[in-house]
Structure formats: structure tokens, C-alpha cells
């Protein structure tokens, strides 16, 4: 059986991982052993951060809605209650976009009882 050397494949894999870490500082972007550890760590952080981003965004949307509705002496929870009573199904993200981009529609939604 002939021996197959994996030097080319290994070199390509190293180059690929080093290329992804180009923006890192110092040896974290040059030395493969350090680069690989940093690369694996960054993948772990990106996975966790994707999970954290969703509730964070929801908090921002609620703050935007609350800020706009306070100008009309309403609170976020009161708006959501009124919309549920009127059987209007609108999620927080869309309501936030409406309050930013279309003030007339948002004021109409505020006055629904």
C-alpha cells in the first residue's frame, strides 16, 4: 500500500482558518495553534450570542414602543392588552417598526379600546 501524504490538504485547512482570523490581534492571527484555539472559542461565543440576541432585541422593541406611547400617556402593557381585546394580532417587532415609521397608524392603534 502506498503512503499518502496530507501536507497539501493540511496546509489548505490551516490557511483557511488563519484567513478567517485575519482581523485578530498579534499571534491570534498568525500562529496556527493559537489561531485554532481562538477560532474555536469564537465559534462558541457566536453560538451563545445568537441565543442572547433575541431577548435583547425584544427589550429594545418594547423600549421603542414604550417611548413613543408615553408621549400619548399610554404604557406598553396597556397597548398590548387593548390590541388583544380588539383581537388584533400584531407582534412586538412589527409594532415597533410601525411606531418608528408610521406615526398615524401607531396613534390609531393607541386609541383602539
UniProtKB/TrEMBL annotation:
<keyword id="KW-0150">Chloroplast</keyword>
<keyword id="KW-0689">Ribosomal protein</keyword>
<dbReference type="GO" id="GO:0003735">
    <property type="term" value="F:structural constituent of ribosome"/>
</dbReference>
<dbReference type="GO" id="GO:0006412">
    <property type="term" value="P:translation"/>
</dbReference>
<dbReference type="GO" id="GO:0005840">
    <property type="term" value="C:ribosome"/>
</dbReference>
<comment type="similarity">
    <text>Belongs to the bacterial ribosomal protein bL20 family.</text>
</comment>
<keyword id="KW-0934">Plastid</keyword>
<keyword id="KW-0687">Ribonucleoprotein</keyword>
<dbReference type="InterPro" id="IPR005813">
    <property type="entry name" value="Ribosomal_bL20"/>
</dbReference>
<dbReference type="Pfam" id="PF00453">
    <property type="entry name" value="Ribosomal_L20"/>
</dbReference>
<dbReference type="GO" id="GO:1990904">
    <property type="term" value="C:ribonucleoprotein complex"/>
</dbReference>
<dbReference type="InterPro" id="IPR035566">
    <property type="entry name" value="Ribosomal_protein_bL20_C"/>
</dbReference>
<protein>
    <submittedName>
        <fullName>Ribosomal protein L20</fullName>
    </submittedName>
</protein>
<dbReference type="GO" id="GO:0019843">
    <property type="term" value="F:rRNA binding"/>
</dbReference>
Amino acid at each position: 500500500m502506498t503512503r499518502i501524504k496530507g501536507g497539501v490538504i493540511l496546509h489548505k485547512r490551516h490557511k483557511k482558518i488563519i484567513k478567517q482570523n485575519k482581523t485578530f490581534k498579534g499571534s491570534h492571527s498568525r500562529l496556527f495553534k493559537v489561531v485554532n484555539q481562538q477560532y474555536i472559542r469564537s465559534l462558541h461565543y457566536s453560538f451563545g450570542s445568537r441565543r442572547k440576541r433575541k431577548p435583547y432585541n425584544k427589550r429594545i422593541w418594547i423600549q421603542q414602543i414604550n417611548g413613543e406611547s408615553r408621549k400619548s400617556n399610554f404604557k406598553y402593557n396597556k397597548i398590548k392588552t387593548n390590541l388583544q381585546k380588539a383581537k388584533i394580532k400584531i407582534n412586538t417587532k412589527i409594532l415597533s417598526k410601525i411606531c418608528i415609521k408610521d406615526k398615524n397608524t401607531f396613534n390609531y392603534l393607541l386609541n383602539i379600546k
